[in-house]
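Second attempt. The first submission of LacI family transcriptional regulator had a stray character pasted in from the spreadsheet, which I only caught after the job came back as garbage. Lesson logged: always re-copy from the clean sequence file. Corrected sequence (308 aa) follows.
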Amino acid sequence: MTVSRVINHPEKVTKELRDLVYAAMSELNYQPNFAAKALANNRTQIVKLFILERMDTVEPYYMNLLAGLADALDEKNYALQLMTKNSLDVGTCDGYVVTGMRNKDYGWLETVEKPIVLYGENQMGLDYVDTDNILGTRTSTNYAFACGYTTVVFVGINLPDSFAESREKGYTLAMAAHHAPPKVFQMDNRSHISDQVITKHFAEFPQNTCFVCASDRLAIGVERAVQHQGGQIPDDYGVIGFDGVFLDRIGSPQLTTIRQPVQKMGYETGRMVLHKIEENGAPQGHEVFVPTLVPRGTTRPPQEGQPK
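This time the job returned cleanly.
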């Protein structure tokens, strides 16, 4: 019974006893039967991940998220299952991580009885992990002015989603602080769409314009459009992305971007859902990570005397 208690409920025994049991297990090369442990605790040792957005627009991003999430689950001997909304009722699990939620998707969450953690901010009071989206675009907009650009345009993602709204809000707050009029374009999160939009409206953008983009994917299209129209980057035009996961490094020049610590965020999401499972669904609140500016070749260096 003592060994079983140390393995299944280590928090209920003293450190000295834990150390003795662990030492004996190591000497005997004893491997706990986690399937039996799961059965005894009425658990499946499975967490399901639902990705509710189109993978072809975010695939490099999700590789980092999955790596962090899997690391956290593996530490507690949990398996990760990747699911779609249509497979919600297939198989059993102990909890869910849901990402790519749109405002229209929240209704079906009420039918889910297992613990849920969202990857992505929300306004429904649900537990979540995300980056500070407002701070991110506020930082990139301020940086554009610090680099001496006099016109700053926002290229946003046309989605009814909290993160998209927050990224636009960060831009508008920064523009207000600089007493500058906002100029916003909204579109699908696809580089060929941002290329088309910027090409169509290029005559509206004077030299010394910087484009603050809600994703690196959009920024790639903006960069391509400016170059095709004969604009010089970064001397005449600047481009700043958001995410900092692979796509920021494929352009020429490489993108200045706002980087999210996606793998760390995935790990924290896994840790949070496991805590929620252990605490029988008790609310966990939210964890917000600070994004960082990564200056590269699509912006000029900051200029002395410019406001930040």
